[in-house]
Amino acid sequence: MLSWILSLFGWRKNNRLPSSAPPWESIPHFTNAVKQRLRTKYWEEENPRAVVFILHGAGEHCQWYDVIAKPLNAQGITVCAHDHVGHGMSEGDRVHINAFSDYTRDVVQHLDIIHKKYPESPVFLLGHSMGGTIAIKTLLDYKDLPVKGVILIGPAVLPNPETVSPVKVFLAKVASKLGPQLEISPIKPEWVCRDAEVVKKYTEDPLVWHGGLKARMASELIDAMEDLSKRLAEFTHPFLLLHGTDDKLCDISGADLFDKETGSTDKTYKKFEGAYHQLHNEPEGVGPQCIQEIVDWVVHHM
């Protein structure tokens, strides 16, 4: 009965488990606190001047950030990332979590690995979309982490009122208890980027999750946004904030609020007129400009 009611609002039940396990002996990874193996990706430079730790968005995976990593490498900067639990090649039910702290817990563990591997290099977080939420929540909940600054690309700070109605919020919170793996309507690929080739790549990528966000994950993400939006004055790290004015997935009002309410004294906020969600892949020169902003900011803050 619950499934039928939720289906009226674009919800559907999905019990698909991860695809067959990759050959872990040949894929870099670490094992998290609950014994799940998470795929890692390192774009390494010898004796790096700095390290940028990328946190990818919902449904995607870390390989999508090669376009950012290589220009950073050119400046002697190592780039690290992992596929969040339930994403890409990492273990776990697809896009499902028990609590949002599952994500932040894994980030803290990976940060410890990075710090031990590069003890002399300053570390920066880069979070895109939900990865931005994870970055902000991690630094709010773990105050003493060795992180020098944060880059946020289209972060999820407030629910988008055009796609997340109060009815869907209510249903997500109910379903997260009764049917945590029920799905909300999938992300529309055409909202990801204005570049048709990027949309095609996204649609055909087998490691991208093409179903809807699960009820528990959606509920936990909403709760995380509600929590961080009340605690922005506690956020004091230097940051670079980049957002497209026509982003249909993460509402720009969240970026406006973050810029206005944070306690940071070193803040840079740039808006890209008409741009969509994946700023780093946007056409008309926006992608290269976004990436150059990131490189310049990191180099300046090293």
From TrEMBL:
Coiled-coil stretches: none
Serine aminopeptidase S33 domain ranges (all copies): 47-284
Gene3D superfamilies named among the record's database cross-references: alpha/beta hydrolase
InterPro entries in the cross-refs: AB_hydrolase_1, AB_hydrolase_fold, Hydrolase_4, MAG_DAG_Lipase
Protein name: Serine aminopeptidase S33 domain-containing protein
